TrEMBL record:
<dbReference type="InterPro" id="IPR040039">
    <property type="entry name" value="PIGX"/>
</dbReference>
<protein>
    <recommendedName>
        <fullName>Phosphatidylinositol-glycan biosynthesis class X protein</fullName>
    </recommendedName>
</protein>
<dbReference type="GO" id="GO:0005789">
    <property type="term" value="C:endoplasmic reticulum membrane"/>
</dbReference>
<dbReference type="Pfam" id="PF08320">
    <property type="entry name" value="PIG-X"/>
</dbReference>
<dbReference type="GO" id="GO:0006506">
    <property type="term" value="P:GPI anchor biosynthetic process"/>
</dbReference>
<keyword id="KW-0325">Glycoprotein</keyword>
<comment type="pathway">
    <text>Glycolipid biosynthesis; glycosylphosphatidylinositol-anchor biosynthesis.</text>
</comment>
<keyword id="KW-0337">GPI-anchor biosynthesis</keyword>
<keyword id="KW-1133">Transmembrane helix</keyword>
<dbReference type="InterPro" id="IPR013233">
    <property type="entry name" value="PIG-X/PBN1"/>
</dbReference>
<comment type="similarity">
    <text>Belongs to the PIGX family.</text>
</comment>
<keyword id="KW-0812">Transmembrane</keyword>
<comment type="function">
    <text>Stabilizing subunit of the glycosylphosphatidylinositol-mannosyltransferase I complex which catalyzes the transfer of the first mannose, via an alpha-1,4 bond from a dolichol-phosphate-mannose (Dol-P-Man) to the glucosaminyl acyl phosphatidylinositol (GlcN-(acyl)PI) intermediate to generate alpha-D-Man-(1-&gt;4)-alpha-D-GlcN-(1-&gt;6)-(1-radyl,2-acyl-sn-glycero-3-phospho)-2-acyl-inositol and participates in the sixth step of the glycosylphosphatidylinositol-anchor biosynthesis. Probably acts by stabilizing the mannosyltransferase PIGM.</text>
</comment>
<keyword id="KW-0472">Membrane</keyword>
<keyword id="KW-0256">Endoplasmic reticulum</keyword>
């Protein structure tokens, strides 16, 4: 591992995040730029996901088996069917990989999914805002300046492939220009009576058709 020029890294570290694709299923791309080459150091982004968005732990496990992403999710048991108003925040530690186009840049992506929200009045969408991630660094035998870096309370190893203890450090950085925003389509409360009536009518019609077919073609002993 190398000793990092932490004064430069602290002064110049920046992070950006983007929500790629459209709809309820997106890819969250996180990019970090340090002030110096951090070869030999592990770099991660720790972010809190609000209840309106989640990472599927089963999908994450599959991606990690194929070495497509590395992350730690807490809690690791998640109700992927729960709506936004019954869900809770999630803590995601995303391990970043070096960007081959830049010696002091790191990036990683992870699939995220929007949850269903309550119907709203006067608007057909809900807004989910992602806060800027916290940048974490772990350098073996590195001596980090206390002025720029401080120990972080992160109970996880330096990579998703190891189990040994690791001391992560966090640094102040220039946050993303603005938090990433996800606009989720929602129903309108003023349409609730119409939706309930149509649902009841459709359910009754389908039940009648099933019953009629069962009486006509069914074999009853």
């Amino acid at each position: 591992c190398v000793t990092l020029d932490v004064q430069a890294a602290c002064r110049d570290t920046s992070v950006t995040q983007e929500l790629l694709n459209e709809g309820f299923h997106r890819d969250l791309l996180v990019k970090v730029e340090l002030g110096e080459d951090a070869g030999g150091c592990a770099v991660a982004a720790r972010m809190r996901l609000p209840p309106g968005i989640y990472v599927d732990p089963y999908e994450l496990a599959t991606l990690q088996q194929h070495n497509l992403t590395k992350a730690v999710l807490a809690p690791d048991v998640i109700d992927v069917e729960a709506p936004e108003y019954l869900a809770r925040d999630l803590l995601l530690l995303l391990f970043l990989e070096p960007d081959m186009r830049c010696s002091h840049c790191f990036r990683a992506a992870v699939p995220v999914h929007a949850r269903y929200h309550r119907p709203a009045e006067g608007t057909g969408e809900a807004l989910v805002v992602l806060e800027s991630p916290e940048v974490l660094l772990c350098c073996c035998h590195g001596h980090l300046s206390a002025e720029c870096w401080e120990p972080a309370e992160v109970d996880t190893p330096c990579s998703s492939d190891t189990t040994g203890p690791c001391q992560w450090h966090s640094t102040k950085h220039r946050p993303a220009y603005e938090g990433s925003m996800l606009r989720v389509p929602v129903g309108l409360r003023e349409h609730s009576s119409l939706v309930c009536a149509l649902t009841l009518l459709t359910t009754g019609l389908c039940s009648g058709l099933i019953l009629a077919a069962a009486c006509k073609y069914g074999h009853f002993s």
